[in-house]
Design brief:
Layout lengths: L1 H9 L12 H5 L1 H16 L3 H19 L9 H5 L3 H15 L3 H14 L8 H5 L9 H21 L4 H21 L2 H12 L7 H13 L3 H13 L5
Helix pairs in contact: 1-4, 3-4, 4-6, 6-7, 7-9, 9-10, 10-11, 10-12, 12-13
Length: 238
């Protein structure tokens, strides 16, 4: 059922008049999609095939939201009442189940979060925030940090010629900031906040806001207050 649904969508059977799909099924595509996603999530913990089809459904909905119309709405996640971020977070969990070593799921997760078409409610920072940093082992975080640094260098080089590369660079830097806070490297995080993060954002207040959110979520109350004083002195708005 899931495979047929995906194939039919990519053949545009849900939006174009045809002899295969009834008008009722075209209009009610989201009812079938919601049931498929629910069933796949039920079986995905045990079966690789279900995890694969869950990924297919995620990419299908993302494609319809961000690249080309495949359904009668440009906001398929809203209609299904499930966010793209929520589905990606679950998908990364499935990547972890399938990966023989950490590098495999980390690379898959980073690639998906960076390249999947965004829906109207998601930013690239939101999608990258789905990586499970706080609940990962120290060695896993170290490996992720190494991957992040390489990707940042690559995106910074591409930013001279590709518009999306700068957006990806900014999102990766925000993920690195979260990683540094999770590791307790607040001195390095703050130094990079001023020297590497803020200069590459058109809205200078965003890195401050994200950093404060990270500090508060990790219980660094004194650091949060101190940074807010610095932000006030520099006239940065949250």
């Amino acid at each position: 059922m899931a495979e047929r649904f995906v194939d039919s969508a990519y053949e545009h059977l849900y939006i174009r008049p045809n002899q295969v799909m009834s008008e009722s099924d075209q209009k009610n595509w989201y009812i079938h999609a919601k049931k498929i996603i629910r069933d796949l999530a039920h079986y995905a913990e045990k079966y690789t095939e279900a995890r694969t089809m869950y990924e297919e459904m995620f990419y299908l909905l993302s494609t319809s939201a961000g690249e080309e119309p495949l359904f009668s709405t440009s906001d398929p996640f809203r209609l299904l009442k499930i966010s793209q971020v929520t589905m990606l977070k679950q998908l990364i969990h499935y990547y972890q189940l399938d990966a023989p070593i950490d590098t495999v799921w980390i690379d898959r997760a980073l690639y998906t979060a960076l390249h999947v078409p965004k829906d109207v409610d998601s930013t690239r920072i939101d999608l990258l925030s789905t990586l499970p940093i706080e609940h990962s082992h120290a060695n896993t975080r170290k490996l992720l940090h190494s991957r992040l640094l390489k990707l940042c260098d690559r995106m910074l080089e591409k930013s001279q010629t590709e518009d999306t590369a700068l957006e990806n660079y900014q999102a990766l830097k925000m993920l690195e900031l979260r990683l540094l806070v999770a590791e307790g490297n607040l001195k390095e995080a703050e130094q990079k906040l001023f020297s590497e993060y803020i200069p590459f954002f058109s809205h200078r207040s965003e890195p401050f806001r994200v950093y404060v959110d990270f500090l508060e979520s990790h219980g660094h109350t004194s650091e949060t207050k101190r940074l807010k004083r610095i932000a006030k002195e520099k006239r940065k708005r949250f």
